[in-house]
Input
Amino acid sequence: MAKPPEVGTAAPDFTLPSVSVVAGIARRDDQRLSAEHGHPVVLAFYPGDDTPVCTKQMCAYTSELTQFTDLDAVVWGISPQSLASHEEFARRNALGFPLLADTDKDVIDAYGVGMIGIGVRRSVFVIDASGIVRWRFIGLLGLRYPDATTITSQVLAARVAV
Output
């Protein structure tokens, strides 16, 4: 497994299938990180759909989504569950951003956030509009996560750094 990308280095590019649920309609698509150049991207890696802490984290980011969109930032949740699982999770919790399915854990491994037992460390990466990692949070036990205000302050700092 790779080490997590350092702040100031290029973010590993990837393409993953995703699902978004808007007004009750599920939309499946492929998301490619490099296609988002020109926009900051927040990658929120989480261990699993419908687990207590993950649900709280994803719901918190949804409730503060305008903080991200006001900064022209894209938010993606990434975990190893299937698109079907992600769709149920998004519907049940009215999540407002795409959930990406890394079922083979290739992206989890590329970002160095895999963990024996739980599969993935709860981690957040802020990627600037040029594809550079500007901030990262990598949880040790997976019970804590950065709040939306902390992340948006890092997105704002990343916009200034470009």
User: Anything to note?
Assistant: Residues 15-161 form a domain with the Glutaredoxin fold (CATH 3.40.30.10). The two ends are 29 Å apart (CA to CA). The chain has one domain: 15-161. The longest strand covers residues 15-22.
